[in-house]
Amino acid sequence: MKLSFNLKLSQSLKLTPLLQQSLKFLQASQSELDQLIDEYINDNIFLERENTYESKNSFSSIQNNEENYYDIFENQSQNRSLKDYLIENIGIFSFSERDQLIFSFLIDAINDDGYLSESIHEITENIPSSPPTSIDELEKLLKLIQQSSLPGIGARNLSECLLLQLNIIKETDHSCLAKKIVGENLNLLANKNYDELRRLINCSKEELNEAISLIKQLNPKPGQIFKKIAPNEYIKNDVSIHLVNGNWEVYLKEDEFNKIKLRDDCETLISDKKDENYANLKEKFQEAKWLIKNLNQRSITLLRVSREIMKRQKDFLDYGESNIKPLSLKDIATKLELHESTISRVSSNKFIKTPHGLYELKFFFSGKINKTEKDALSSKAVLTKIKYIIDNEDHKKPYSDEKIVLILRKQGINIARRTIAKYREILKILPSSQRKI
Hints:
mainly alpha; two-stranded antiparallel sheet
C-alpha cells in the first residue's frame, strides 16, 4: 500500500467571537439587549455599570456563559423562546458548518408566530456562503425544521401551517376534507361561503361541518405558545424622530441600563502572569473590551440605518402612512456600504417613535407599485389608501374592487382589480357583496 500526501485548498466561513457577538447585539431587541448585558456583567469581573442602577431581573448565576451564541447547536437556557426551541431541536442532528450557517439564517427568519417571515429567495441572497446557497438546499433544510418542530412551525403561509398540522393527524374522511379546504379553498372558508365549499369538495353539510370543526382545533399561530409576556413588558423605542427648526432629526434612545464600562482596576487584576487563572482572566478582559466595542458599533449602525430610512420616508413623516415610498434593503445597504443581511438584522425588532406612532424600522421597507421612479408608490401606501377608501364607503352600497380601481386611478394610481382583491385579503376585508349591511 502506497502512502502519499495531498495538499487540498478549500474555503469555509468562520464566525469570529467578535463577529458572533456583534451579530447577537445587532439582532437583539431593546429588552433582549438589556438581558444580554445583564448576563455579561454577572459573568465578567472586568465589567461594571456606569451608574448604580441594577436590574431587578439580574441572573444570580450563569452556569455556562462560554457558549457561542451564534453556534445554533449549543445548549440554551431552560426558559426557552421559540428560537431556543428550534435550536435545541436541530441540535440533535449532525450537520456541516455550511448547513449550520443556513439553519441560523432560517431560524432567524422565523417570527414569533412561527412563520417564515422572508421569502426563500430573500434568505438565500442574504446567506454569505461560497458557493451561494441554492433554493433546493434551503428548501431541504426548511423541511427538516418543519418535520422536527411543533406542527406548523416554519410555514410560509396560513395554508401551509394548517396542512403541516393536519399531516400528523390520523387520516380519516374528515381530515382529508379538511386538507382540501385549507390547501385549496381557505378563502372560501374565511368568507363563510359554505355552499361553494360543499360544491367544490363534493361533500354533505354534515361532513363539511365535521371538517370545519377539525380545522378550528388547529393553531394558526403555533409559535405563540413560546411567547412569555411579563406583566411590565412593553415595546420600547430604540430611536425617535423630532422636527427641529424645520428639519427631521433622528435621535438614539440612550438607555441608562446599557451604560457599562471597564473597571478602573482591570490592569491590576491581570498583572500577575504567574496566577493560575491568568489565561482565563486575560480572555475575560478581551471579551469585556469586545462587548463595549460591539455595543458602540450597534448604536452607530442603528443610528445610521434609522437616519437613512427616515431620509427616504420624509413624505411619511410629513403626511402619514399613505405616503410611504418604496424602499428595499438593497437601497439602504448600497448607500451605507453595508450587507443587506446587516440592514435586515438592525431593522428587525427595533422601533422608532414618530409623529404618527411607534413603528418597527422594518415596516418602512416595501415593494414598488407604479413603474416610474417619479410616480413610484409603495405597496404599504396603497394598502393604507384602500383601507381608507373602504372605511369611508357607504356601508349600504360598498365599493366593488372595480370601483376601487377607478377611485385610485383618479389619484394617479394604476393597479389591476386582482391586485385590489389581493390587498383586500391582506387587510382581511370581505368582498363588497359580504360587506353590505
